[in-house]
Amino acid sequence: MKAVITVVGKDMVGILAKVSSFCAECNVNVLEVSQTILQDMFCMIMLVDTANMQVPFTEFSEKLEGAGKDLALSIHVMHEDIFNSMHRI
Amino acid sequence: MINTSDILETIAMIEEEHLDIRTITMGISLLDCCCGDQKASCDKVYDKITRKAEKLVFTGEQIEREYGIPIINKRVSVTPVSLLVSGCQGDPVQFALALERAARTIGVNFIGGYSALVQKGFTPGDEALIRSIPQALAETEHICSSVNVGSTKAGINMDAVRLMGQVVHEAAVATADKGCIGPAKLVVFCNAPEDNPFMAGAFHGVGEPDCVINVGVSGPGVVKYALSKIPDGDLSDVADTIKKTSFKITRMGQLVAQQASKRLGVPFGIVDLSLAPTPAVGDSVAHILEEMGLEQCGCHGTTAALALLNDAVKKGGVMASSHVGGLSGAFIPVTEDAGMIAAARSGALSIERLEAMTAVCSVGLDMINIPGDTSPEVIAAIIADEAAIGMVNSKTTAVRVIPAIGKQVGDELDFGGLLGGGPVMPVSTISPQKFIHRGGRIPAPIQSLKN
């Protein structure tokens, strides 16, 4: 399945590196990344492929969201279908 | 890739605007559990529910984590228990206790279906069940009860209405030491839907399959937020905005329903398109009406605003789901809605206004605290009025009033959790006694003759 990772918070050095290296550790393939900085707020959206993920999905999302909290970032990992079903007919 | 603003919009809806799936309700038929002997029937009821719904809570939580959407309640609805009582005699409360054990085992927060459908008359089983409701609600925590006393096709069974006036009162007395929680789990319907996933009125109708998944969505906060972005739009803009928002909310419900159905191996029934408020700030239907421009919910204009809201919710939602059912519309439970509670406290909202509102939205007089000394005849008359609105307008109406034993107008009664709490509201004490005691049936209206 594909999942969407969103990261919102204050910009700082190494956010992209941290998130993507965690994905690599879990064998999660990053397919697309889009990021913008609005004023000082960092906003990144990643589309990832979790087909060959080595940990259960819930563990992956909990760990990543937990890591985000430590850095005062709001991180969400959600199944791609929720966005597709809500915004596409 | 999906549009960035769409992604952020979805996350804001969930994080800040209280968007959630209110309930995944598994409907289970108990018709094959009735075997003549009550003890054996109760065991079969317990076995069937715990077998069918074993993974309901686990699956709900799994979907919640994977999709990042909160699913507040996982529940079960069953065949009206009066049918089992008719089949094997005995004390109906034994069935309530068996259901309670099953609810505790599988971890759901309510099982609905301690119910009877008596719009035209009672069977002995129906009457025994109805008379046992106060005791059943007092001896259980997770069981919800409902009685259908009227329909557009059958008219109103006024003997049942009179009996329910007593039962509501007795249910409050029987649970007076627990904050009168009994009647908060008891709904009296006219035109009850057979596939409603929302409590306390959920039951699994006899026309339903053996097991089915129904989902109820929510999201008053999302609608209010969307309206706050068009402060100067006219009412056509308001209706359009509500429709679009309702479409998005319902798509999420449809997705969750399909996933739950697939993972549990149970057919998908319906999505109930409802705006169900909670006492949390920012999750109120009354605040949507106020966002439209009313100073406070309950003022003149409230019924019109609610009619617009209810219609737009349905129009937006109906295209988003393959099967729509249940109650589908805006709910107005007073104690469960922060804006309604405030309006009731300030005196802006009266029972008479609420009654008018029930003519244009789903359900009816819902979660209203009334003085504890309100007579059973007055309660019955409240039920009769609501049932008449439902019968004539071919819609579902219901009454869930809570006589607050030992309390008077202005006192507060709190239930906690999703049921909330609020002030005791004034009720007319002019007596309808003679009318209620006449009994018999109010004939079905002419609009029932459609064939």
Q: Summed up, what is this model?
A:
The complex is a heterodimer of chains A (89) and B (451). With 89 residues, chain A is of the alpha+beta class.
What can you see in these coordinates?
The complex is a heterodimer of chains A (89) and B (451). Chain A is an alpha+beta fold and 89 residues long. Chain A has a single domain, classed as 2-Layer Sandwich (Alpha-Beta Plaits). Chain A is 37% helix and 39% strand. Chain A has a four-stranded antiparallel β-sheet. In chain A, a hairpin with a 2-residue loop joins strand 2 (29-38) and strand 3. Chain A starts with a strand and ends with a helix. The mean pLDDT of chain A is 89. With 451 residues, chain B is α/β, with parallel strands linked by helices. Chain B has one domain (1-451): Anaerobic Ribonucleotide-triphosphate Reductase Large Chain (Alpha-Beta Barrel). Chain B has 15 helices and 15 strands. Chain B has helices at 4-15, 38-52, 56-67, 81-88, 93-106, 124-139, 158-174, 220-228, 235-264, 285-291, 302-318, 338-346, 351-358, 376-393, 433-438, and strands spanning 21-28, 71-78, 111-117, 143-151, 155-157, 186-190, 211-217, 268-272, 274-275, 329-330, 365-371, 397-404, 412-414, 421-423, 441-442. In chain B, the strands form three sheets. In chain B, strands 1, 2, 3, 4, 5, 6, 7, 8, 11, 12 and 15 form an eleven-stranded mixed β-sheet that branches. In chain B, helix 14 (376-393) links the parallel strand 11 (365-371) and strand 12 (397-404). In chain B, helix 7 (158-174) crosses helix 14. The interface between A and B is medium-sized, with 26 and 22 residues.
The third-level CATH topology of chain B is Anaerobic Ribonucleotide-triphosphate Reductase Large Chain
Report the radius of gyration of chain A as a whole number of Å: 13 Å
Q: Tell me roughly what share of residues is in helical segments of chain B.
A: 40-55%
Shape of chain B: globular
What is the CATH C-level name of chain B? Alpha Beta
